Amino acid sequence: MIHVFSRHAVEAIAPFDEPHVFISIRSPWDDKPARLRVNEHTIGVLHMAFHDLDCMPTPAELKVSYHIDAHDLFNAKMARELLAFMRTHVLGKSLRPEIVIHCDGGWSRSAAVAAGLEATILTATTPNGSGARRPTCASTAPSGTRSTTNRRVANAARSARTQGARASARQARNETGSS
What we know:
Blueprint: E1 2-6, H1 7-12, E2 20-26, E3 42-49, H2 59-66, H3 76-89, E4 98-103, H4 109-122, E5 137-138, H5 148-176
Parallel strand pairs: 1-4, 1-5, 2-3, 2-4
C-alpha cells in the first residue's frame, strides 16, 4: 500500500512496524531533510528535491517569474532514480513493503509520485499479471487534486519505464547475438 503524508504528518506519526520504504520529497531550496521515523523495519529511504508547480510556464518564465531552473522540476533523471530505488527495495519482493511518500503539503508532489507509481510500475507488476488493480493510495490530499506536477511525474515515470524496457530488450538481443 502507498501512504501519502505531509512533512508535518510524517514527522509526527508513530514509526511503521511493518517493512516499509520512505520517499522523502522536499523543495530544492530546503537543505533540512524531514525527520523520518526510521527503524529496523525501514528497508530504504530515497530523498528527492524538486519544485511544485500548478502550471507549466515557459523556460523564460521559470527563470524570470519563478526564479527557478528547469532542472529543479521533476524530470526523466529523477524518474530513473525513483525507478531504480523501487526495483531495489520494492519490486519483486515476496512481501512487498509499505511505500511511505511525503512532501511539504502532502497533496501535490507526493500524491503525484504515488499516482505515477500506481499508474505505471505498480500496476504493471500485479501478482496476477492482469494489470488491473484497485487504487491503494491512502492520502491526505483532497480527492480530484490534479496539477502539472502529477502529469509530469506520470509522464516521466512512463518514459523511464519504456526506456528501461528498450534497454533490456537491446541487452537481450546483444547477449543472444540477434539483431
